[in-house]
Amino acid sequence: MMRSYLLLLFCVTCWGSNFVFGSMLVHEFPPLLLSAFRLTATSLFLLVYAWSTKRLQILSRRDYLLLVPLGFIGTLMNQAAFFTGLQTVSATTASLVLSLAPITTALLAAVFLKEAFTPRMAAGSVLAIGGIFLVVGQSGGLALSRGLLYIGIAMLTFAVSIIMMRRLTERIDPFVATVYSTVIGSGMVIPAALIKEPLHGISTQLWAWGLLVTTAIVMQGVCGLVWNTQLRRVGAGKASVFLNLQPFVAMVVGFAFLGTPVTAVQLAGSVLIVGGVILATLKKKAKAPAPLAPGVTTT
């Protein structure tokens, strides 16, 4: 479990950084085209990796009944809403809204996947959410805006996609599910971007293209594979609690790259976030650990 937690922490660190890097990239590319370019790079990376490892397989019609909605909700809607929201919402505020995904996911998992929502998970989530509000409390609050609504949609679609991926990985390998859902989602985003946004608005800066490709491969490709694999071992509700760390990461990376000041109150909030994650994820030591049932998978 410790290895799984460290891998989940790596993913969340990358995704927390994504708020800052995304805020930089939306000034260089229109949001839908940015999503299309990143997803194209991610899809190519996944397809090359899948071809080299010979892990792709032919899927059934039943699998596509989940893959197509997953691509639409978890890729097209999520990415379009995320980058559109970042045009007007700060990276830290966006990370706060996205950090509500653990609570949303745990509730959805309890309803649709019959996963336990324990008092320890609830207490840890509340503690972490309290830390989140301290971290972003000095950013001007959460006044309702169109950008904030887009970020809220990104949070909800992310939580829903976790539940859908859980259902999908009950029948097929998480890697296969990740590759197919990403490629299908890319196929939806690309034509939408080309129709809506002009190509002359894209950046000509080499650093912007380098950042775009790097974040696409690492944050969407590598982290997507790692996350979906570890979700099988940890469980949807418990793994998603790690997402509470994203505002803390966004705060640190924002300071490093954008010069955003870090206050003592924000540092105190980050301690609450880490404490909440530890409380929600650590188990009491058992006399005889229960064996894991073979074939049980969760996102």
Describe the overall structure.
With 299 residues, this protein is mostly helical. The protein contains twelve helices and no strands. The protein is globular, with a radius of gyration of 19 Å. It starts with a helix and ends in an 18-residue tail after the last helix. Mean pLDDT is 80; it is low at 285-299.
Summarize the structure.
With 299 residues, the protein is mainly alpha-helical. The chain is 74% helix and 0% strand.
List keywords for this structure.
globular; 12 helices; 299 residues; mainly alpha; disordered C terminus; 74% helix
**Helix proportion of residues, in percent?**
over 70%
Q: Report the end-to-end length measured between terminal Cα atoms.
A: 15 Å
- Taking Cα atoms only, what radius of gyration do you get, to the nearest Å? 19 Å
How does the helix and strand content classify structurally? mainly alpha
Helix-strand pattern = HHHHHHHHHHHH
Number of strands: 0
Per DSSP, the total helix count is: 12
The unreliable regions are: 285-299
Percent of residues in beta strands?
under 5%
Overall mean pLDDT stands at 80
Tell me the overall shape.
globular
Q: Characterize the largest beta sheet: strand count, sense, and whether it forms a barrel.
A: none
